[in-house]
Amino acid sequence: MRRILGIALAVLLIGGVIAAIALGGKKPEGTATKTVHGVIGSEKSEFFRDPDVVKALKDKGYTVKTETSGSWAMDQLALKEFDFAFPSSNEPAAEIEAAAGVKGAQTTKPFFSPLVVIARANAAKVLTDHGLAKMTGKNTGTLLLGPYLKAADGQKSWQELQGGTSAFPELNGTMFIRTTDPATSNSGALFLATTSNVANNSTVVSDDAGIERTAPLMRKMVSVQGAMPQSTDDPFRAFLSGSGEPLILAYESQVASLLLQKQDPGDMVVLYPDTTVNSPHTFVPISENAKDLGALLVSDPALRTLEIRHGFRPQEGLAEFTAATAPYTAYLNPGLTGIRQVGAPTVKILMALAARAKG
Fold it and tell me: Cα-Cα-Cα-Cα dihedral of 119, 120, 123, 127, to 10°?
């Protein structure tokens, strides 16, 4: 009997070894991941590169590879080469769907981030002293777009705003906000949408008359900048390094991410425009492989926590964002108090505005 049992155990052992060799270390069924390739706005690059995000997505069955593009230029890409597109607002999504041949796709809006103007402390003081901004905290305040646009229309210099003095010699030349290219980049386009609204008697530009009414001022705001960047990333990094312009347009997420990761903001002052167009980052599935990824970015608690770490406001986690950023209200306006939310023009109108603004 013992001999028979010994033979049986040996057979089982040999069978187990053969099975292990045959499997070759393969993972059990159900743990394989789909590799998906997406085109995203550059402000989401660090999020998708974050090792914790990579792991969280892998745990849910996805390996995500990305490349960047201006949100308003995505519809010009060979979209069939991608599994998804992830522009920085809702407005370009319809154009992307049409170009990709997936009109009516189940888009999702996992998170959003308002636009802000980042200022050097001295620049913020000059704006405040001249009535173009109002401080609401130690390092945060409101950019008053009406007075700002009046100064931009008059192409005021920093010296004029300082009353002809040279109290801050580093502030010289024409006062302007460095923005991205409104013809290709989401932040530049939405700032154009916002400022044209204010210039159009607080009404969304919706026709040729509105374009004609606002185009001269939009042209002044753009032409003074010279060559315009394609994304907010480069001007933001230049600002942090101590170079670059004293006023730059950015996303709140860039500032919040910096603070939440306990990096030094230097002499940064964060000004929220008193009028703004919301910017919900919109996930457009192009292939079947990515059709559920957008919903996962909305619903998964671990991914929402990581979205907040990178400064984004989850659509279904605003209380979590407020709690996480509570220590940084010297810089941030978690409740967007005192900010007027307005709609954006149609894509056709906004692109016409951008074309006129660029001459």
Answer: 40
